[in-house]
Fold this protein.
Amino acid sequence: MFCFLVSKISFFKDNVLSLKIIFVILIIKSLGCAAYYWVYFCYYPPGFNGDSVSTLHDAKIMYDALPDHPVDYFRMIFGFHSELDSDPLYETYFKQIEKWGRADVTGDFFLNDNRTPIRINAIIMLFSFGNYAVHALVMLAISFIGQFAFYKTFKGYFSKKEMLLAIIIFLTPSILFWTSGVLKEPIAMCLLGLFVFAFFKLFVHYQFDKKYILLIVISSVLFLIIKPYIIVLLLVPLILFALVKRYQIKRVALFYLTSLLLIYGAGILTLKFVFHKDVLNTIVVRQNDFVSLSKGGRFFIKDDKYVRFEYSDTTHFHKVDTLNNLYQLDRHSAFMYWNTHNLRDTIYETNNKDTSYFELRSVCAPSGSAIYIDRLQYTFSSFAKLIPQSFYNVLCKPMFYDSRSILELMASFENLCFLLFFALCFLFRDKIPIDKNLLICCITIVLTSFILIGITTTVTGAIVRYKIPFIPFLLMIPLLILDVSIFKKIPIIKHLVN
């Protein structure tokens, strides 16, 4: 059905990607769906609770309301409910939904990004009836639409390299794999493509059509709900790209550098002193949370005291109330804890004298793919020290020497191919002048996104997923400077270039 629609809709007509090539891409993407299913439903042991499993579980809870309580279903789908535990829907539905989430420290800036995918999959269940393959194929279609829009946006900047650009966008292994599951990544890739497509139509090509205005508004709103950091990292470089193109600014690199410092600096200061929202503190808290989760542990809470014991430690506390899951910490025990109003400062208790009751909040095993990185502090020197390491981690990790699973070995091989591709493109540089505006725009997007991801994320599995939307920008950098005439001498590859 989707292939039939693609063949009939004019949006998918292209002078380089014929329908046969598009259908081949869709077949390869469907094989990606099968590969993702095998990894997370067959390779991992039974009971492994991956994101796809939990998302479908949560969507099923919403969907099951339909036969007897359709009003409840539509209230949950459209958000007609309160956030309070006293809401009539809470006990029946939300309490059972694993990823519905409550407000937390990062809620000052980011809306909960788990609910929309749950709602989308609850809608898909109207015709899938819970069959995973149907959900996966819908995600395939959603991601393909965004990827094709992304391809159409930039193909004009890659004359004689359009097929190579398509391979980067559609068939890069990590993009292919992570956009083939029931996850947020296919939705994010769709929104990325549609947002960039509409932005270029409006502000670069000046085609002020109502459909493009509607498209950029809808994609922006959904981005702010699902993955708001992506649109924040995209918007400023794209605006600078449009300004350089519009006013023919000559010193492009200097313009980008000064503009970024002024815009991001003014934004951070305005949020802090006018709206009392501290972006840097949010980044510090996020990074410390990831460090704690990657190391695992047993976490207890009482009032404003958030306590952590080692995951292997089962001797320094004992249960006192089974019904309410309450524990008492042993006297003279040692542990670390945080004040819930100031999570960036770790406090170490060496001789516990608190005999009150604590609630067991969570038990988290140490991550098998954790990266050692210092805890971020709320100081300039701490940020400056971690920035180079953070960028390196996102660009190069995992690598073979620190891989601990099949998936990490595959990601290591891909990272090695990226580095070799960069080397190849710099070795065979095009002598024709390139579009410096697009080059610096891509470099800006990659630098800012990789640094932010690297600073706030200390688990390689999460890094691989978080950088998926930015990989096309990363690989467009070497592709811009590549002299494709070198490939015309290679029989197998020459058909990929004009």
Observations:
- Residues 49-130 form one domain.
